[in-house]
Design a protein that fits this description.
The protein is built from 22 helices and twelve strands. By secondary structure, it is α+β, with helices and mostly antiparallel strands.
Length: 565
């Protein structure tokens, strides 16, 4: 409790700023429902939550997703990144929120190179002006975490310097602490949010953002992708210059070509749009289904088209990882979708529900209705992104939350189809998926793979059987000593106890007040004793105390109701 209070006191100015921004954009009611002000009262501070009516007139005319996106942009890098991550949570947010959050841009005003130079000189031990030639102080790109400058090595090799903004780490760490506190409050105050695990989302977001701030880790991602595509002549991953790369700067080879967001230049460069779409899709599907290590943000800005219809992928700050068991589930789902197999889709979704209660019959009926809409469609007419979005919509209706490691994958698949259709309007994602899925399934059930899996399962069974006597012995000994314990995690138990305590206090006060009224009424009928204003003094005082108790009781109940609101 002391640690939490100290953290709150340290981050109080930032929390006030966040509350002010959200209230100004029309979310003051939500802030009050979270009970942030009550948390500060426990810390010995007070905080004023502005009323929604204080927002500007134009804000009142905007939809909530637009207001939320503007608030996140105003709050800076951490919240912009959070919005971008939430745009991948197609299982949590409805389509209109996803579409709006996708508009969040990390492009921010650049900072003078002199500020970066001081950081680089400290990291390298000498000025970058002494290490590079033709160093361009004007950035070619400026994002929330880093900005990019062009330069040349001593031998004339063109490179880019991706440099982390100075003093950004403590700011982001403070924002992450605030987000964790708000997520905890959300789970406590809104039980319906627990199925989406807001605290877990924030924790995963914090890990992802901290990895993204370490540019040396991004360079490691570059190296791994380069190894995976070493034998593919059509996919280019920029080389890293490790002698200059560290936590705050990533120095990599400059790749010149047609940027993915300038498709009008492709014809002039003599490039084949259909071939580029095919090779790009095959590359990303290989990342996902074969390597289990994929670029999680394959949007046009992270793709460069090169001569001979080659494709370069850049910016590996956000990557996804899929272990082999999860890849098997994805292959099963994709195969079922391509074959319109209701039972196959149902089995995978039930595996993802974990212990969450799901009406299996209703889920199966909804899947049957969903597949009926695609029953008579030719393969070329199926939009895979829409197909996937429909499945996600069904998951959302049944409160099935995507496993955390799949949220980036689903978003990447949807983005990939959009990218392919920008290049080629006739692009068919399903036709590219099918051979990859077939190859993975064939490999999964090959004699060598089955033998390897059987050997592994047998070894695990032997280990389990060997350890069984020891485990049973420990269990029996613990039971004999009375140390066998079952832990139950009952959420909001403390709050429930406090509610019982308050209810008991009010009930006791009500009984006492009733007794005072009855006793004072009896005393008022007795002529003897001292008098006050012509009335028996004790009876009069009894009525006064009963009245004050009643006022306090009514006020307490009213205040509790306002607090819940």
């Amino acid at each position: 409790m002391l640690r939490e209070t100290m953290s709150l006191m340290r981050d109080l100015p930032r929390i006030r700023e966040i509350i002010g921004v959200f209230a100004r954009h029309g979310f003051g009611g939500l802030v009050r429902r979270l009970g942030v002000h009550r948390t500060f009262e426990k810390a010995g501070e007070s905080i004023n939550v502005p009323d929604d009516q204080a927002q500007a007139q134009e804000q009142e005319q905007l939809d909530p997703p637009v207001r939320a996106r503007r608030a996140l942009e105003e709050l800076g890098p951490t919240f912009i990144k959070l919005g971008q991550v939430m745009a991948t949570r197609v299982d949590v947010l409805p389509p209109e929120w996803i579409a709006e959050l996708e508009k969040l841009q990390s492009n921010v005003p650049s900072i003078p190179f002199a500020e970066l130079e001081a950081e680089l000189t400290k990291a390298w031990g000498q000025s970058p002006r002494e290490m590079f030639h033709d160093l361009d102080e004007t950035p070619v790109g400026s994002a929330s975490i880093a900005q990019v400058h062009r330069a040349k090595l001593a031998d004339g090799t063109p490179v880019i310097l991706k440099v982390r903004r100075p003093n950004i780490v403590p700011k982001i760490e403070a924002d992450l602490r605030v987000l964790h506190h708000l997520a905890t409050l959300a789970e406590f105050e809104f039980p319906e949010t627990r199925q989406y695990q807001p605290v877990r989302i924030v924790e995963q977001f914090a890990k992802s953002l901290k990895r993204e701030m370490d540019l040396a880790l991004e360079a490691q991602n570059h190296r791994r992708f380069a190894e995976n595509f070493a034998n593919d002549p059509y996919i280019v991953i920029p080389a890293i210059h490790w002698d200059y790369t560290n936590e705050i700067v990533n120095v990599q080879a400059f790749v010149g070509g047609v940027p993915g967001n300038e498709l009008e230049l492709l014809e002039a460069a003599g490039l084949d749009r259909k071939l580029l779409a095919q090779r790009g899709a095959d590359a990303v599907l290989k990342m996902i289904l074969i390597d289990g290590y994929f670029h999680a943000d394959p949007h046009p800005g992270n793709v460069i088209y090169l001569p001979e219809n080659r494709i370069a992928f850049i910016d590996f700050g956000m990557v996804g990882r899929l272990p082999a068991p999860r890849r098997d589930e994805i292959v099963d789902l994709l195969a079922a979708l391509a074959a319109r197999d209701e039972r196959g889709i149902l089995n995978v979704l039930l595996d993802w529900t974990a212990d969450a209660p799901v009406d299996e019959d209703r889920l199966a009926a909804d899947l049957a209705d969903f597949l009926f809409n695609y029953e008579n469609l030719a393969l070329k007419d199926i939009r895979f992104g829409q197909l996937l979005n429909d499945v996600i919509g069904i998951m959302r209706e049944h409160a099935i939350t995507l496993p955390a490691d799949l949220t980036l994958l689903f978003k990447a698949l949807i983005t990939l189809e959009g990218l392919g259709r920008q290049l080629d309007p006739d692009f068919q994602m399903v036709s590219h998926l099918t051979p990859f899925v077939r190859a993975v399934i064939v490999k999964r059930y090959s004699p060598a793979a089955l033998a390897k899996k059987g050997k592994r399962n047998l070894w695990e069974l032997i280990q389990l059987a060997g350890g069984l006597p020891r485990d049973i012995s420990r269990l029996v000994k613990a039971a004999r000593r009375g140390k066998l314990r079952i832990d139950l995690d009952l959420k909001r138990l403390d709050a429930f106890g406090q509610q019982i305590d308050r209810a008991a206090s009010r009930l006791t006060l009500g009984i006492v007040t009733g007794c005072l009224i009855i006793g004072s009424s009896i005393v008022m009928t007795v002529p003897a004793g001292p008098r006050l204003f012509g009335l028996p003094a004790f009876g009069f005082l009894g009525f006064i105390i009963a009245f004050l108790n009643s006022v306090w009781l009514v006020y307490s109940i009213w205040r509790a109701g306002k607090t819940r609101d």
